[in-house]
Amino acid sequence: MAFERLIMPAPYRNTATRSCQTSCVRGFEEFRFLQDVAGQDLFAHLAWNERLAPLTASQAPVAPVNAHTHTFVESEGELSVTHTHDVSEFFHVKTGEITVIASPFVSIHLRGGESIVIPRRHLHGSIVTSDECRYSLTALN
Q1: CB of 107 within 8 A of CB of 72?
Q2: Which of 65, 66, 63 is closest to 91 using CA atoms?
Q3: Do 63 and 91 contact (CB within 8 A), yes or no?
Q4: Does residue 138 contact residue 90 with C-beta atoms inside 8 Å?
Q5: DSSP of 53-82, one letter per residue?
Q6: What superkingdom does the record give (predicted)?
Q7: Which strand (E) or helix (H) includes residue 106?
Q8: What pLDDT tens digit does each residue of the chain (141 aa) get?
Q9: How far is the C-alpha of 141 from the C-alpha of 56, rounded, in Å?
Q10: How far is CA 8 from CA 28, 42, 107, in A?
């Protein structure tokens, strides 16, 4: 409504308003693009949450040759606040137990020998639920 009443008639006023119209239309188009990106991202997160389950050994991805793997040993209650990464991660629990939080309503409990892949840019966190947990994170891409 505002677009039709305020922006569309602007070119008929003067050169300055034509420039304003161009900027406004560009702003609307950029906002629409960002909404599309946000929608796609939301659907990707929801799909990941729906299929969240430990991987079997045969499902575990093969890490790239130069992959960086970090091993952590943490005590019960150790918390990793929710965050994202620019790469997908292979999350493998060696010993102990940990809960990986994928959203406020979705989490997965992993025990020694279990693993998951956390897709790049997917929000996640974790909390150790056993006396001690040893796990590794390997960057996949």
Answers
A1: no
A2: 63
A3: no
A4: yes
A5: -PBPGGGPPPPPTT--EEEEEEETT-EEEE
A6: Bacteria
A7: strand 106-111
A8: 666 666 666 555 556 666 777 788 888 888 888 888 778 888 887 888 787 777 766 677 777 777 889 999 999 999 999 999 999 999 999 999 999 998 888 889 999 989 889 998 888 999 999 999 999 999 887
A9: 21
A10: 13, 33, 49
Structural domain boundaries of the chain?
Answer: 2-49, 55-139
CA gap 6, 21 in Å, rounded = 9
Torsion angle, alpha carbons of 45, 64, 93, 48, to 10: 10
* Domain 55-139 listed as CATH 3.40.50.12780: no
Count how many Cα atoms sit within 13 Å of the Cα of residue 91 in the half-sphere of its side chain. Answer: 25
- In degrees and rounded to multiples of 5, residue 57 shows phi and psi of -60, -35
CB 52 within 8 A of CB 122: no
d(CA 111, CA 130): 9
**Residue type for position 114:** E
